[in-house]
Design goal:
105 residues, mainly alpha, rod-shaped
């Protein structure tokens, strides 16, 4: 019978090499996943910031649209037409009396 020492078993060396290879592969995979996750988190934050900015712009544009709709309705009234005729053209009604301040000399 042949006596073999523990350190000289060739199968044991292959087991250690295989386990080392698996451990390195798992660590490399974890590193790749970690870097990918960090990249995705940065991209997510950028998209959320862009979403908030666009939501604010949308709200501002909706308010502006509401204002313009109200302004358009007001501009179609006779009151607006009279105001513009008085202000821009200086027109008055026939029976209207206008008082102007006198200049002091």
């Amino acid at each position: 019978m042949k006596v073999v020492s523990v350190n000289q078993n060739p199968k044991r060396g292959r087991k250690k090499t295989g386990l080392l290879f698996i451990a390195v592969a798992v660590m490399a995979l974890c590193a790749v996943i970690g870097f990918g996750k960090a990249s995705l988190l940065r991209e997510k934050e950028a998209k959320e910031k862009q979403y908030r900015e666009l939501a604010e712009r949308l709200l501002a544009e909706q308010e502006r649209s509401d204002f313009l709709t109200e302004r358009r309705a007001y501009m179609q009234t006779t009151r607006y037409i009279e105001e513009m005729a008085r202000e821009k053209l200086g027109l008055v009604y026939e029976d209207e009396v206008i008082f102007r301040p006198t200049e002091e000399k």
